């Protein structure tokens, strides 16, 4: 991804104070032989009464201490804020291109889970996928793109003229060819995530916009990135390729790590998308956004190639 890579459960037992065992009464020296009968019984009765009273006092003190400890523990528990509940965000794809698209996806090499069952969308259709960000390893970092001009049998002869990434219709098995990208960093351990951006760093094929949905307060920028405008008419001629019928198909970046006439074109007509790899380091750039309080995103593929 163009962006920098960016819940933990615990089974820890809660400590509870335990009531100390009562102390036995202090020992007494042997009684002199002069003490007999009623006197002895009276003394023994007095001692027994005193010992019983002492035990009652000790028990009462112990109970109060234990109750106080439990109340303190409960108060401490109430003072600790509950951890935020991690959720799996959704991404809804909208096809506004005027062509059939096969949604493609690729993940970073950091344990993020590959997605399958990706939709095929006719013009005007939409479909939603759930991001497995709370599953091990606790994040999902990757990108989505529109494959076009696809044909053949999935798993065998399937192939796409634009954005090809292998022989399957519902998932990718190889890296994608250069196309427009919607990039995401979903990370349940990052309080600012998700991060998201539109990247034309490798090429421009179709315009893409990313819009957060169900945005709550205090979530960050949460702005729309990308642009709905078709940039193929502005492509430097030496970087433009065409469909068999002669219509513009793809504008390829000649150098993703340097400013070129291509990156200048992107910056002029779509300043909220990456036009080269270090666009996020330029003063005042608007290419990267984060939104920690949304439930998901809409990725819309607009008319272009």
From TrEMBL:
Annotated region (Disordered), positions in chain: 1-30
Pfam families cross-referenced by the UniProt entry: Thaumatin
PROSITE patterns: THAUMATIN_2
InterPro entries for this protein: Osmotin/thaumatin-like_sf, Thaumatin
Biased composition (Pro residues): 19-30
Highest rank taxon of the organism: Bacteria
Alphabetized PANTHER family for the sequence: THAUMATIN FAMILY PROTEIN-RELATED, THAUMATIN-LIKE PROTEIN
Name of the protein: Thaumatin family protein
Gene source species: Streptomyces thermoviolaceus subsp. thermoviolaceus
